[in-house]
Records
---
Amino acid sequence: MTGRAAREDGPGRGAMPTYLGTPSFPDAARRAVSDARLRGNLAHATTTIRARRAEAVAELDDWAELREAGRQIKDHVLEHLGHYLRLLEEKVTGAGGTVHWARDAAEADRIVADLVKATGETEVVKVKSMATQEIGLNEFLAEEGITAYETDLAELIVQLGDDRPSHLLVPAVHRNRADIRDIFLRAMEDVPAGLTDSPAELAEAARRHLRAKFLSAKVAVSGVNFAVADTGTLVVVESEGNGRMCLTLPETLISVMGIEKIVPSRRDLEVFLQLLPRSSTAERMNPYTSMWTGVHPGDGPRNFHLVLLDNGRTATLADDVGRQALRCIRCSACLNVCPVYRRAGGHAYGSPYPGPIGAILSPQMRGVGSEVDASLPFASSLCGACYEVCPVAIDIPEVLVRLRARVVEDGPRRPLERVAMAAAGWTLRSPTRLALAQRAASSARRVVARGGRIRRLPGPLGAWTETRDAPAPPSESFRAWWARTGGREEDGG
Amino acid sequence: MSAREEILRRIERVESARGARRATGDGDVAAAYARIDRRYLRRHHGGAGDGGILDLFAARVADYRATVLRVRVSEVPGTLAERLAAGSGSYGVPSGLPAEWTSATRAALVRDPPVSSLDGLAGAVTGCAVAIAETGTIVLDHGADQGPRALSLVPDRHLIVVLAERVVADVPEALERLDPRRPLTFVSGPSATSDIELTRVEGVHGPRALEVLLVE
Ligand code: SF4
């Protein structure tokens, strides 16, 4: 088979919702930056969590070793993905579950909708899942006459506020407590009179609102954090207990997982159950982790379906540099430290995956054919903070540089160059500390030189590489600036 | 071609393009797996002669704003009776819960309550399979002294009796002790959310009160 034929007939790209009408990153980011309240909420939340994450991580002397093991386990799975998928299928089936395969979003949506319809139900309860957001499941189910109730507090806030998620872990991070109270008062039919904005009261309102739904639901839809291939065990990590409700009370459970979520063996969970909670919510352990293996007679759902989703993952796997994005465990640490995310907010990334990970995942899964996907690799100052906090050591700057080259090679040139330049310009413009961060990164990390792939991009992007390679020593190192300011905004961007 | 075949074929193509061995045998995969570098610690606290595991466990559970009571075996019935009397209503208990634990309890107990009745209960009392000192985590494997998953989920109070010998130092040891074929629930503090301004707030859908009797 020729290389060309393999390319045409090869790994398919995926599809996922593009959230913006005018979808290039710089336009959306500019709009977000002008929203002072959004920026304030975001800065407050991310500053808090960042400090706490650092403490939680510092508590373990062997963090570097855990991180290395996490990286190697994930790489091992990606290297033998076919083997592990077959093994997982065999074990889940053997334990009484049913396994389905979906090439893309449309196929996964159809599978889930048909499974729900087969139960005769028109409502499902859902526990937060990136995979189902990626495939636009709720919207598809609605078209099919099925109502999906999000049960995670943040998802509920997004759903009631008719809003879009802006953070992996806390989709409503752009809302503060006063916003949340207003949304509840406006959209929650059984909202308690006199609701204040105390977090405990807000949580209580959500508890009451959803309790009856949990107790009567017949079908639940979940995502999966980890799937243990050699036992068929699935793992969901959560905080509120809505996950436990969904995984335990309904008769039918449908779980959708990206094919890269596998770990080989139960033993590997000892690594990820240490890495994930400390990286995401900065806790020693999240309140609840549930594990189940197929169907457990007398306890929990009687029917279990697992949907294995490709949707551009095999295409991502094909790139030697880019495939490391598939190690991601969706902890969101990279978002919280990213100076660009903190200024632009999650919505500017135009996909369910915001922040640095979104900037490398979306263009790989969907390809770089659209304006938003072509601009995302430029939505970064390459400062490297994302890499440093990533619990599975994904070198996001390295992948960004790789994707910048691909935009130049593959994209329909003119419009893409324009958005790419605009994104790079927006990222690097004015706020002095970003330029500083970028220069610091340039001398400290030498991503471009080390990658050895591009030193100078052709055409107008050449100007950008020139900036990148300028070795001007920063007057203050990025780390020093970070330590001094904590990344706080000093100007209006 | 089915979706399954096509996805597996896409993967095989990537593997062969990368020069990976085709049709990797189980042996090759196992050998590669064995080479994964695991220089991380098996435990962070509690080396030989360190008697501090129970103290650590108690402190870490309390960090989550759960209640921790340290008792001797003989004190379990009295302490449980006291805790249960502090609330009103009846409590669900699994049929395998040691009867002596609730022998002094005056509160109404319902053995193996049906799921439909759980929302009306004041709480549930269970044992546990394993507890992890480092992270303040209690693991249920929903065996006879713990009951099915719904029992310790729907009622608003969860009292767990943790025997000292079930407490291990850290996460790796806990996983070794657990049977992956059972349903497992890892509980670290009461139900909570970080969804409001990324700050932990106790009490959403799971039990809002977690009370732990650590039996020494
Ligand atoms: S890329 Fe790394 S830091 Fe970012 S969400 Fe994924 S695992 Fe976390």
---
Amino acid sequence: MRTKSFLYQLQNELWNERIKILILGFLFIFQVLSSIISIFYMEEILKLFGFEFINPAPPTGEAAFLDYFTDQLIFGLLIMSLGTMNIFSGDIENGSICYSLTRPISRTNYSIAKLVARLTALILPFVVASLIGWVYMAMMFEVFPIERLFWSLVILVLLYAYLGTVTSALSTRVSALTAGLGAIALFIVQFSLSAFKPIELLSPFTYAAIWSDFLLGSSIALDEIFLGFALIGWILVPFIISIFSIKTRDL
Amino acid sequence: MSNVVQIENLSKNYGQIRALDDVILAIPEGSIFGYLGPNGAGKTTTMKILVGLLHYTGSVKIFDQEVRYNSVEINKRIGFLPDAEMPKNDSIHRFLSMTGKMNEIFNREKRIQEVLAELGLRKLRNRKIGNLSRGQRQRVGLANALLTDPQLLILDEPNSGLDPVARVRVLSLLKDLAKDGKSIIFSSHIIGEVDKIATDIAIIHRGRIIEQGTRKDLFKRYLSHGKYVLAGKVDREKALALDYVKSCDRDSLGRYIITTPGDIPEEQLLVDLIQKAGSKIKYFSSLEFSLENLFLESINGRLMEGEYA
Ligand SMILES: Nc1ncnc2c1ncn2[C@@H]1O[C@H](COP(=O)(O)OP(=O)(O)OP(=O)(O)O)[C@@H](O)[C@H]1O
Ligand SMILES: [Mg+2]
């Protein structure tokens, strides 16, 4: 009964996200393709319009990878915080949560269903688009070892999940606008923190960076790699806070 | 008869605002319980507590189970109509279907058809809730509450936004449900409607229950002393000094309501006595019992400065 109502809720939430999934799918594919185009074809395109384009360093797999990584991070920051800023506050403010929560479902299951559905809706299109883009790149240029691609995708997904869960946690208590802006502000602060030595540990971006260094083949101490796993903790904490916050608040 | 709902020492604060203050309520099984009170009195707050949407202090038992710990279980046997918006993007059918699935109701599609027909929504079945009129949305909310054929219905202003025909139909629907042994709690600002169907009544004002009982009880209590309404220039102090006058208050229409201990020998005598005590009476009559009078009077004695009156 409990799992059943959870599954119904999840199914319902995913259905509600269907348009988001489609739009984001196209958006991400467009974005992936555009970054491929800019890396590999820009020279030719510019030539087409009669520009003389002197590329100081011809594109390498590594450069493309880094480029892609940072592009995605900034794009994802916006998508994730804008995409989750109303996840709870929307239903709470207009009161429709009163209908959902008087059906036989616990607040915990309700929150988990919502979080899972929304995170899936935002992240799945990105994963699919990335795979499409990368397979294409790999076929065209044979520059990426496939397991490196896979792991970097995992890191990005984890970072996205972090961005989404933090915004969601805020959304359980404040308006969508405040949650969205607050989350973006927090991420910018954390992003800057990751540049400074002792406080860098307060930023999940540091852990992501450790992993990407590792993937790019820099030499990294073993304990640092383990530190990278802390990224999962950074997701779990706001996830649990969201559930707890919905559980304890008045609706 | 046992009580479906037993509320003891229920209090609720929203930050600094005390929305409910030591509420004690017992709602007998099979009753139609009319919950009255001015805007902001605490009706919605009470109902939300009953279905587990708000945290509270005190004890709230439904079907002999404490809501605080068992709200998911209890809610399976409750149909609730909140005073809130519905998910705009769902179609009516989808919305009801979700409630049906979660409650694992038997023969879901057939039951949905039934409630849709009952509330005159059959043709709108696939329309998006966001595009419906206010009254149509209210009907969807009612359909949703009725769908599981619950033992207890909790309806926050079920008739708001409905047209006159629908109002009458909903009232008779509720009456029929009570005949089948269901209990119903509903709030309303239309006293006439409460008067028509309620078997039990409570009046809440500023978070406190100020009147409560069966319709009969209230009727008896109200008439236990004589009540008269008079208009004119009344010297309140002097009138109150009379043996026959127990209380003398102005109501919101500017009239004076006088209560006497028990019945007086003759009405004219009272009029004469009050006139002699320095008042000029233009109009005098005994006050009949009506829920409306009871409501206005019990609220009126408690209005603070800056409120009506
Ligand atoms: N979420 C909230 N935050 C703060 N105060 C609230 C909240 N909800 C209700 N209140 C306050 O609690 C009191 C009771 O409100 P409630 O909604 O229960 O009144 P009501 O009897 O349903 O009124 P109405 O007849 O207007 O529907 C009011 O003073 C209201 O302002
Ligand atoms: Mg209300």
